[in-house]
TrEMBL record, chain A:
Signal peptide: none annotated. It comes from Aromatoleum toluvorans. The complex is composed of two ATP-binding proteins (PotA), two transmembrane proteins (PotB and PotC) and a solute-binding protein (PotD). The gene is potA. The keyword Endoplasmic reticulum does not apply. This is Spermidine/putrescine import ATP-binding protein PotA. Part of the ABC transporter complex PotABCD involved in spermidine/putrescine import. Responsible for energy coupling to the transport system.
TrEMBL record, chain B:
It is found in: Cell membrane. It holds the Pfam family BPD_transp_1. Keywords: Cell membrane, Membrane, Transmembrane, Transmembrane helix, Transport. This is ABC transporter permease subunit. Gene3D superfamilies: MetI-like (1.10.3720.10). It is a multi-pass membrane protein. It comes from Aromatoleum toluvorans. Belongs to the binding-protein-dependent transport system permease family. CysTW subfamily. InterPro entries: MetI-like, MetI-like_sf. Residues 94-302 form the ABC transmembrane type-1 domain.
Length: 373, 315
């Protein structure tokens, strides 16, 4: 097959192929048979809590860690036998790992100094200058890293990892070291920059907002396994397992037994109607995930919900007012808490329910997601 | 509450005082005494010098009449440098000492760096054991260890190394291994190695592992990473180790005396000769004073250099 690497051509779908990659530390499987294909110029996020194996996977891509099994193929080249210092990948380390004894421009030049055959001094200087301009750090070229703020260090680290024009850019918790305010601004800045450069990028994060803001696709990892891969929308709206449903955003999870197209759940007063397209085995155990913003909240005395709705009555246990919306914790008669997220605009005409008020929670059957694992 | 408590009641005043009192008592005061002796005139008496402070009859305070003959002697040698037939015994001893100390420092660095690097890169549990092994020789008397070297290097066919060489058929006759510069160097490097290893280790163990990974990620081969990252970042450890080895090595007396031949001129030996057999205390004291001054200048310069550069920075 002829592959065309012109920048004008359509990006290749499996620019990076990770095939059954496994890494074991002593007795634990840090990464357990992960397979994944990433397209050229894609921004992909590995999302998971600490210790889920996402960083180990990233380090194996960089060559800082060797897989016990599996293959990593980048742009048609098997990277297994390629040491870190010869890989066409560059990594931006968590908390940046800038060289403290070198200036900003020397840090950025470091990778270029290693090129063989050697680059001319003038070329190194020109590329460093271009990189510093890209991240708007020209004015700080002569500073040492410890003289920079966290955000400036992050930009230098990015410039350093882009200077060699890697085929694959790896970002390890790129913004975790920054304040929340700066972080949100930087997320979009970073995405714009990566897209402008046109580099394929994998980032690792434990922050679902960061993953959803920055990445085109997300891979959710837990205990070394890749549980689900999809766009932020897919991951959030149609999780394929309980872990994803609970890890990405908040959710109401009902556990029960499937019987005749409904979920019989001890927590809920009536059999829960399931979405029509879900087809779980009769008699099997299953879970239903309902996002809080899909749960409607009304005063108990109001007109009952129509057909095709799951509804129950309870009292308000907690309210968190968040400006644009409020999060209600409603305690049903059996003690089960159902979370509902209600837009503030809903209460235009009446006072919102308050603590102890009797309310009805309800959702349309199609808004639930049936999970079998 | 009364804020202004008497400083004499504050704990940290006394804690801070202790090192000053110590330095005064055991460095400044002895140094002042030696300085006084160096400015005296030698005489056959006990003690064998005439004090520069002369108390004349009727005067309340003694007059200060320094005798600069000893310093003049050193100065004359300095001026005669390069002249044929000049007597340069002190300068030669100085040169010998500085050269030997420099060689010792260099060899300790070359041998000690891998030691320190390996220990710092070992598992945390193993580090203490390895450090203890480095210090283990200290558990034996220093003198004993130097004597052990004498028997190892013995130049007759009884010397251990010579016996091995003869048995292996590498040499026909025993080599002259003892009583020369080489033997002194071996003894010095052996004795001072831990003083290089310990500060280097303390520095290298703090080295951020991710910096090495970052260097590898950016394409630096392991030796390049060492040259460009590890070595510059361990500069402070190198300086500390080098000073701990170099300074005592300059004045080392026992090792050259036991392992060196008569031709191994060293300043420590010279001082010993003048204080002892030659009974020229002012000369010995003058050499000792110049030695302190000569060593303090580079230390002070290094100190200022280190401070000016702040964060262990290089250029």
């Amino acid at each position: 097959m002829v592959q065309d690497s012109d920048s004008g051509s359509r990006p290749r779908r499996d620019y990076l192929r990770i095939e059954g990659v496994t890494r074991r530390f002593d007795d634990t499987l840090a990464v357990d048979g992960v397979s994944l294909a990433i397209a050229e110029r894609e921004i992909f996020a590995l999302l998971g809590s600490s210790g889920c194996g996402k960083t180990t996977l990233l380090r194996m891509l960089a060559g800082l860690e060797a897989p016990d099994a599996g293959r990593i193929v980048l742009d048609g080249e098997d990277l297994a036998a390629v040491p870190a210092y010869r890989r066409p990948t560059n990594m931006m380390f968590q908390s940046y790992a800038l060289f403290p004894h070198l200036t900003v421009e020397q840090n950025v030049a470091f990778g270029l100094w290693q090129e063989r055959p050697r680059l001319a001094r003038a070329e190194v200087a020109a590329r460093v200058a271009a990189m510093l301009e890209l991240v708007q750090m020209q004015r700080y070229a002569r500073r040492k890293p410890h003289e920079l703020s966290g955000g400036q260090q992050q930009r230098v680290a990015l410039a350093r990892s882009l200077a060699k024009e890697p085929k694959l850019l790896l970002l390890d918790e790129p913004l975790a070291a920054l304040d929340k305010k700066i972080r949100q601004r930087t997320q979009l800045e970073l995405v714009n920059l990566i897209e402008r450069v046109g580099v394929t990028c994998i980032l690792v994060t434990h922050d679902q907002e960061e993953a959803m803001t920055m990445a085109g696709r997300i891979g959710v990892m837990n205990e070394g396994r890749l549980l689900q891969v999809g766009t932020p929308g897919e991951i959030y709206e149609t999780p394929n397992c309980r872990f994803t449903a609970e890890f990405v955003g908040e959710t109401n999870l009902f556990r029960g037994r499937v019987d005749g197209g409904a979920l019989h759940c001890e927590d809920f007063p009536a059999p829960i109607l399931l979405p029509a397209d879900a087809d779980p085995d009769d008699g099997g155990e299953a879970w239903l995930s309902v996002r809080p913003e899909r749960v409607a909240l009304s005063r108990a005395g109001a007109a009952p919900a129509g057909a095709g709705c799951n509804a129950a009555v309870g009292e308000v246990a907690e309210i968190a007012y968040l400006g644009s919306h409020s999060v209600y914790h409603v305690r049903l008669a059996n003690g089960r808490i159902v979370i509902a997220s209600v837009a503030s605009a809903q209460w235009r005409d009446a006072a919102p329910p308050t603590w102890g008020d009797a309310v009805r929670v309800a959702w349309f059957a199609p808004d639930g997601v049936v999970l079998t694992r | 509450m009364k804020r202004a408590r008497c400083f004499l009641l504050r704990g940290h005043f006394w804690v801070g005082l202790l090192p000053w009192a110590w330095m005064l008592l055991f460095f400044a005061l002895p140094f002042a005494l030696i300085l006084k002796v160096s400015l005296s005139t030698p005489e056959l008496a006990v003690p064998p010098y005439v004090s520069p402070f002369v108390l004349e009859p009727g005067a309340a305070l003694p007059h200060f009449r320094p005798d600069l003959a000893s310093y003049r002697r050193l100065h004359d040698e300095l001026r005669a440098l390069g002249l044929a037939g000049a007597d340069l015994q002190y300068l030669a001893a100085w040169g010998g000492s500085l050269l030997l100390a420099a060689l010792t420092t260099l060899l300790c660095l070359v041998i000690g760096y891998p030691f320190a690097y390996h220990i710092a890169r070992s598992r945390e549990a193993a580090r203490n054991t390895l450090l203890m092994l480095v210090m283990l020789p200290f558990w034996t008397s220093f003198l004993l260890r130097v004597y052990a070297w004498m028997s190892l290097l013995d130049s007759s066919e009884l010397g251990l190394i010579n016996r091995l060489l003869l048995a292996a058929g590498l040499v026909d006759a025993p080599l002259q291994l003892l009583y020369n510069r080489g033997a002194v160097l071996v003894g010095m490097v052996y004795s001072y190695l831990p003083f290089m290893v310990l500060p280097l280790y303390a520095n290298l163990v703090k080295l951020d592992q991710r910096l090495l990974e970052a260097a590898a990620d950016l394409g630096a081969q392991p030796w390049m990473t060492f040259l460009r990252v590890t070595l510059p970042l361990s500069r402070r450890g190198i300086v500390a180790g080098a000073m701990l080895v170099f300074i005592p090595a300059v004045g080392e007396f026992v090792i050259p005396d036991l392992l060196g031949g008569g031709d191994v001129l060293m300043i420590g030996r010279k001082i010993w000769d003048d204080f002892g057999p030659n009974q020229d205390w002012p000369m010995a004291a003058a050499v000792a004073v110049t030695m302190v001054l000569v060593l303090i200048v580079p230390i002070a310069l290094l100190h200022r250099h280190g401070r000016a550069n702040g964060n262990g920075a290089q250029r």
